[in-house]
């Protein structure tokens, strides 16, 4: 009886280890690219596409420290915030975005004052 219990415990440990390994193997790695964590998205400029707010994880000089508001309430303060202009809505459901090349956009005038100073980029690759 003790052997059966011990074997069941070993099997359970093996299955948990295999599941954890499978989850980490399935996670998409950015493989040296710029990696960002998606915070939220709003309709893009002039209602075209999406404006995706991200926190840059591995290129700190790209973004700025900013306290973000979402629907009038404080969403949080993040260290390296950037707005990704996404006219085609490619990143609408992503939890992270990886890219290598981008272009910096000119700041919008007359926009939301809470967004003032946040760099805006368009991902090219």
Write the layout of secondary structure elements.
Layout: H1 2-26, E1 34-43, E2 50-56, E3 64-70, E4 73-86, E5 96-99, E6 102-104, E7 120-123
Residue share in helix = 10-25%
Biggest sheet layout: 7 strands, mixed
Q: Per the principal axes of the C-alpha atoms, what is the gross shape?
A: globular
Uncertain stretches of 5 or more adjacent residues:
5-27
Mean pLDDT comes to: 77
Oligomer: single chain
The number of strands is 7
User: Helix- and strand-based class?
Assistant: alpha+beta
C-alpha-based Rg, rounded: 20 Å
Distance between the termini: 59 Å
The number of helical runs is 1
What is the H/E order?
Answer: HEEEEEEE
Relative strand content: 35-45%
Key descriptive features of the protein:
125 residues, 20% helix, 39% strand, 1 helix, alpha+beta, seven-stranded mixed sheet
Write structural notes for this entry.
There is one protein chain. This protein is of the alpha+beta class. Strands 1, 2, 3, 4, 5, 6 and 7 form a 7-stranded mixed sheet that branches. About 18% of the residues have low confidence.
In short:
The protein has one helix spanning about 1-25; strands at about 35-45, 50-55, 65-70, 75-85, 95-100, 100-105, 120-125. By secondary structure, it is α+β, with helices and mostly antiparallel strands. A hairpin with a 2-residue loop joins β3 (about 65-70) and β4 (about 75-85).
């Amino acid at each position: 009886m003790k052997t059966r219990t011990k074997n069941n415990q070993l099997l359970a440990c093996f299955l948990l280890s295999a599941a954890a390994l499978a989850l980490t193997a399935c996670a998409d790695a950015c493989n040296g690219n710029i990696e960002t964590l998606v915070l939220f998205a709003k309709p893009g400029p002039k209602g075209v596409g999406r404006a995706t707010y991200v926190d840059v994880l591995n290129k700190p000089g790209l973004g700025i420290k900013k306290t973000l508001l979402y629907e009038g309430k404080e969403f949080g303060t993040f260290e390296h915030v950037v707005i990704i202009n996404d006219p085609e809505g490619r990143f609408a459901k992503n939890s992270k975005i990886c890219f290598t090349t981008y272009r910096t956009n000119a700041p919008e005038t007359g926009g939301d004052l809470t967004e003032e100073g946040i760099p805006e980029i368009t991902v090219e690759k």
